């Protein structure tokens, strides 16, 4: 019941603010209409008194020659607009904090890693008001809207505002949320349990690292990492950095068939033929663990993925424009098809693509039975 009361209270507040915003928007539109009308009269030849700079004290006491106050055509509306903005400024931070608290309450009723559908519905319903809050004060995102980091669907709604913030601020926000409630992650500065050391072989670093990481305690790996190469005495942050650096190159090693290089020559995407490696699923999982640990411990890795792959990781919908980073020519052809009528061109395109599988071209349907469905202007 308390959660229901919180839901309805927040809902009423945000609806009230939305109403005020709409009213304020209408008032602004009315003012603009009057100004445009005056401009039209001026163009028709109707004279408008020239502007005369006010004398001393005129701003304090706008008056006519008779000493009476001069009526302000827009003053009341401008004052109302200012009042509305002040109300938003005063309430935005507090309401945003309560919204985050509401999210946390909803999360208690959901399995780990899942966002309450009701909370998603709530944010979508009040999307415009919340965007108004963060547009006026982007710090609200960093101070209160931590739920965005846990729900890609909601993150995408505010992405344009988040991207506009300094990269340093975004990083601090991410790590503040990531490490909240966790102990110091610098394992070098506290005693190391011998059983927690990742002992890997330099000559088979990818396979041996995959094996030891899969057996390690995930919670301890998040707290800190200690690595030692077999037959070597060195340990510390330098060894950890070297380990991450070597693994970042091994992850995209063609011998493992996990990733392929895109057309731009600098980014990588998952290899559709990775199944030739019988351990590819284990290796993909290991690659994800390494990248996650690198992110968690602020270790640099020398890998750049395609934009579409990043979107898949974040759960953000992919569109045809993302193909440009993988195959610019193919993306250009797709754009041409969208921009032109292909009805009478005789292209005989189907909902399938041809892909190179180790030198042999194979047709892959894009939908069930796609190989026999012709692409037309209608579909």
Automatic annotation (TrEMBL):
It is found in: Cytoplasm; Endomembrane system. PROSITE patterns: HECT. It comes from the Eukaryota. Residues 217-379 form the HECT domain. One of its GO terms (molecular function) is ubiquitin protein ligase activity. One of its GO terms (cellular component) is nucleus. It catalyses: S-ubiquitinyl-[E2 ubiquitin-conjugating enzyme]-L-cysteine + [acceptor protein]-L-lysine = [E2 ubiquitin-conjugating enzyme]-L-cysteine + N(6)-ubiquitinyl-[acceptor protein]-L-lysine. Transmembrane segments: none annotated. One of its GO terms (biological process) is Golgi organization. It is an enzyme of class 2 (transferase). Pathway: Protein modification; protein ubiquitination. Keywords: ANK repeat, Cytoplasm, Membrane, Repeat, Transferase, Ubl conjugation pathway. SUPFAM superfamilies: Hect, E3 ligase catalytic domain. Its EC number is 2.3.2.26. Residues 40-77 are annotated as: Disordered. This is HECT-type E3 ubiquitin transferase.
């Amino acid at each position: 019941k308390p959660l229901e009361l919180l839901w309805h209270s927040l809902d009423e507040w945000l609806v009230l603010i939305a109403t005020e915003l709409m009213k304020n928007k209408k008032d602004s539109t009315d003012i603009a209409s009057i100004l445009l009308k005056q401009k039209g009269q001026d163009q028709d030849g109707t004279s408008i008194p020239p502007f005369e700079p006010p004398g001393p004290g005129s701003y304090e006491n706008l008056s006519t020659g008779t000493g009476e106050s001069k009526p302000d055509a827009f003053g009341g509306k401008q004052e109302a607009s200012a009042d509305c903005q002040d109300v938003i400024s005063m309430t935005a931070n507090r309401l945003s904090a309560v919204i985050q608290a509401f999210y946390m309450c909803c999360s208690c009723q959901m399995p780990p890693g899942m966002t309450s559908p009701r909370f998603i519905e709530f944010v979508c319903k009040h999307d415009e008001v919340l965007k108004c809050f963060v547009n006026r004060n982007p710090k609200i995102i960093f101070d209160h809207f931590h739920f965005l980091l846990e729900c890609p669907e909601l993150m995408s709604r505010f992405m344009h505002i988040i991207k506009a913030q300094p990269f340093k601020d975004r990083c601090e926000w991410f790590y503040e949320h990531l490490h909240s409630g966790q102990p110091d992650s610098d394992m070098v500065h506290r005693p190391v349990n011998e059983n927690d050391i990742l002992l890997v072989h330099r000559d088979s670093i990818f396979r041996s690292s995959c094996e030891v990481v899969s057996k390690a305690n995930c919670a301890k790996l998040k707290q800190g990492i200690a690595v030692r190469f077999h037959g070597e005495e060195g340990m510390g942050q330098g060894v950890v950095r070297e380990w991450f650096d070597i693994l970042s190159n091994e992850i995209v090693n063609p011998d493992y068939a996990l990733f392929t290089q895109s057309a731009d020559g600098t980014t990588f995407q998952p290899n559709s033929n990775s199944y030739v490696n019988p351990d590819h699923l284990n290796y993909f999982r290991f690659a994800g663990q390494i990248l996650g640990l690198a992110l968690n411990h602020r270790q640099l890795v020398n890998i750049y993925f395609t934009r579409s792959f990043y979107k898949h990781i974040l759960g953000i919908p992919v569109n045809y424009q993302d193909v440009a980073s993988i195959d610019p020519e193919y993306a250009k052809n797709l754009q041409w098809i969208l921009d032109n009528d292909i009805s009478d061109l005789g292209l005989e395109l189907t909902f399938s693509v041809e892909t190179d599988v180790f030198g042999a071209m194979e047709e892959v349907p894009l939908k069930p039975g796609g190989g026999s469905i012709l692409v037309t202007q209608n579909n």
